[in-house]
Specification:
This protein has about 250 residues and is α+β, with helices and mostly antiparallel strands. The protein has two domains: about 5-90, Phosphorylase Kinase, domain 1 (2-Layer Sandwich); about 90-250, Transferase(Phosphotransferase), domain 1. It is built from eleven helices and nine strands. The protein has helices at about 45, 50-65, 95-100, 110-125, 155-160, 165-170, 180, 190-205, 215-225, 230-235, 240-250; strands spanning about 5, 10-20, 20-30, 35-40, 75-80, 80-90, 90-95, 140-145, 150. The strands form two sheets. A six-stranded antiparallel β-sheet has the order 1-2-3-4-6-5. A three-stranded antiparallel β-sheet has the order 7-8-9. A hairpin with a 2-residue loop joins strand 1 (about 5) and strand 2 (about 10-20). The longest helix is centred in the middle third of the chain and has 20 residues, at about 110-125.
């Protein structure tokens, strides 16, 4: 793929990202005259019938989520043996970038607003039977005016097929995985809530709740240890919020 390349009615402008799922480009729809984002799926997905079928199911499911905090799917098609997803172009930066910029906790009001918006969006998805599986700061985009948008609903399980370690743990990103994800068990919406709990903890403290020098240490911590209580790190956090974070990070998802 390259700038200026035409794919149906879309003209590629510039590459804006790349990951286990493939490449993401900003593009211009010539007929509608609007900017969009196009994700070109990695060849291992497009060429595998079972993965491609699962991808199309996930794309159809995500297209059903009508929520202002969820990045919607506008179109899905195959061209030249490559599968494409078309989505609105979000101009801004990720929550991961925001946390790196802050170099510590976010303001309490900002953290609460972002967590509340993500929780509302996850609720809408879960009511449609859709699980994200990879809620993390890098998948939470912030627009120029600070509005959060959740990316890549339900696609983490497909991306996980590129890595043996991720295959064993059901997709997702280790530091934000629920205990049941690390064990490779089937998950439901409670796994997303755990991941949101990790993100909330990180926004409030500037630290991930489960940390170690090696992946095996992180796995052990997620499965067997409790994080440092929020009041010990952030005395200004209201007791009700600290209790909520503790419930989100409960080992038993019941």
């Amino acid at each position: 793929m390259q700038a200026g390349q035409r794919i149906r009615d879309y003209v590629l402008v510039e590459k804006v990202g790349q990951g286990g799922m493939g490449e993401v480009w900003s593009a211009f729809h010539e007929i509608l005259e609007r900017q969009v984002a196009i994700k070109a799926l990695a060849s291992h997905i497009s060429e595998d019938p079972s993965l491609r079928k699962r991808f199309l199911q996930e794309a159809r499911s995500q297209a059903k989520i009508q929520h202002p905090r969820v990045l919607s799917v506008m179109d899905a098609f195959q061209e030249g043996g490559v599968d494409y997803l078309v989505m609105p172009l979000v101009v801004g930066h990720s929550l991961a970038d925001r946390l790196a910029e802050a170099r510590g906790p976010l303001p309490l009001g900002e953290a609460l607003r972002l967590a509340g918006d993500v929780l509302d969006a996850l609720d809408a998805a879960h009511r449609n039977g859709i699980i994200h599986r990879d809620v993390k700061p890098a998948n939470l985009m912030l627009t120029g005016d600070g509005v959060v948008k959740i990316l890549d609903f339900g696609l983490a399980k497909l991306a996980g097929t590129t890595s043996a370690a991720r295959k064993e743990t059901g997709g997702g990103t280790l530091a934000y995985m629920s205990p049941e994800q690390t064990l490779g068990e089937d998950v439901d919406g409670r796994a997303d809530l755990w991941s949101l709990g990790v993100v909330l903890y990180e926004m409030l403290t500037g630290l991930k709740p489960f940390r170690a020098d090696r992946d095996q240490g992180v796995l052990y911590a997620i499965r067997n240890t409790d994080p440092v209580p929020l009041p010990a790190l952030c005395p200004e956090v209201p007791a009700a919020l600290a209790e909520l974070a503790g419930r989100l990070l409960a080992k038993d998802p019941a």
